[in-house]
Write a sequence for this structure.
């Protein structure tokens, strides 16, 4: 009954111009389908050697001299590489620092302060908890009011959803480029333009799009953005996030966590804080050097493949997943919780069924690893460079069998 799907999956894999990259990743023993790349990407096979070389040479041999020789510049250098390879942004606007949560706080707080006389932060009611929690904290600190966008849960935020909410009181709008639940892909250019027309700043959360969806931050006029590096950038658990601040805004914002690494002269040890100019002002504490090693290797791989080709592979995988859903899962009462149109969808597909919490635990024990999301959704996170169509099919048929 599924032979035609297996034939189709193998044909798609045979025609995949990026198929040779599948062998670049560590294969987990006992795992037959890893469908959670949008939560934690697989490690590249070269990472153990890179870490070993780092310990033996950069750290073990050069010791503290490596700060002067390379590490001091690493947050900006890797930030520029992320911008070049995945964000469509010029150099000098992106930096690697802190966690997603800390960077969201820094930019939200700075943005509200940069719009004096405006007192509202617009954010989606179903946005990722960190985004909502931090926005609430910033609102409490500044006396601002949260204004909630409540879009269709599958389609995600549409430009017109903001029309009744934006006004002269709006200081900042915070949205996710790809919805963490449904995978809905927001219209970055149109939404950013609407926010600017209202005189407000726009902050995009890129956690579920960086490395899988091509972006044009500069061309879209994006003000601010934050993204993580452990999903499609495969930096490993806890790898630091990145922040983007458009070049002409950098002199007009001041981030609130005034640590020594963001000072104009970090070794002056002076009595007062004076921020360094440019994107480096987003730094606070000592950068996580070790945690930047794996993501650099992944950025090289994405650059080799090309982000447009990565997106084409992502579309192929998610389109195939929707086809398998229609044939094998929909008849069992499973619902599609993602947009059908690939142009409106990011890199994952979400399906829903009341039994999915228990089923996910069973599948994990059997070496099939999807991602459960409360209350009853499974996300199929199909990381383009490390996932095949046949692996996708195997995982989805395991979901079908578990329902039976």
């Amino acid at each position: 009954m599924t032979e035609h799907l297996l034939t189709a999956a193998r044909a798609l894999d045979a025609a995949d111009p990026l198929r040779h990259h599948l062998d670049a990743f560590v294969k987990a023993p006992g795992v037959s389908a890893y469908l959670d790349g949008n939560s934690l990407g697989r490690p590249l096979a070269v990472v153990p050697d890179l870490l070993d070389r780092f310990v033996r040479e950069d750290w073990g041999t050069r010791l503290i001299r490596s700060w002067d020789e390379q590490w001091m510049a690493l947050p900006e250098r890797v930030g520029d590489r992320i911008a070049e390879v995945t964000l469509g942004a010029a150099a000098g606007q992106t930096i690697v620092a802190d966690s997603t949560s800390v960077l969201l706080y820094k930019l939200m707080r700075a943005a509200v302060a940069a719009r004096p006389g405006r007192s509202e932060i617009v954010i989606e009611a179903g946005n990722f908890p960190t985004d909502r929690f931090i926005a609430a904290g910033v609102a409490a600190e500044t006396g601002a009011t949260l204004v909630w966008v409540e879009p269709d849960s599958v389609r995600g935020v549409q430009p017109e959803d903001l029309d009744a909410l934006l006004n002269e009181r709006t200081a900042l709008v915070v949205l996710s480029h790809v919805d963490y639940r449904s995978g809905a892909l927001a219209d970055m250019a149109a939404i950013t333009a609407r926010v600017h027309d209202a005189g407000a700043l726009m902050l995009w959360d890129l956690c579920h799009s960086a490395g899988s969806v091509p972006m044009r931050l500069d061309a879209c006029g994006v003000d601010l953005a934050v993204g993580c590096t452990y999903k499609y950038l495969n930096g490993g658990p806890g790898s630091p996030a990145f922040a983007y601040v458009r070049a002409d805004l950098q002199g007009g914002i001041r981030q609130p966590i005034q640590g020594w690494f963001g000072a104009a002269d970090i070794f002056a040890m002076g009595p007062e804080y004076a921020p360094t100019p440019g994107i480096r002002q987003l730094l606070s504490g000592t950068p996580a050097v070790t945690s930047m090693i794996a993501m650099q290797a992944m950025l090289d791989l994405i650059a080799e493949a090309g982000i447009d080709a990565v997106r084409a592979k992502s579309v192929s995988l998610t389109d195939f997943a929707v086809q398998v859903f229609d044939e094998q899962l929909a008849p069992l009462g499973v619902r599609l919780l993602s947009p059908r149109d690939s142009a409106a969808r990011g890199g994952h597909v979400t399906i829903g069924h009341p039994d999915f919490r228990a089923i996910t635990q069973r599948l994990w024990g059997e070496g099939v690893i999807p991602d459960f999301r409360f209350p009853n959704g499974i996300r199929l996170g199909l990381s383009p460079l490390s996932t095949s169509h046949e692996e996708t099919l195997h995982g989805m048929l395991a979901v079908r069998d578990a329902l039976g």
User: Anything to note?
Assistant: Residues 3-45+306-403 form a domain with the Aspartate Aminotransferase, domain 1 fold (CATH 3.90.1150.10). Residues 207 and 227 are 4 Å apart (CA to CA). The chain has two domains: 3-45+306-403, 72-302.
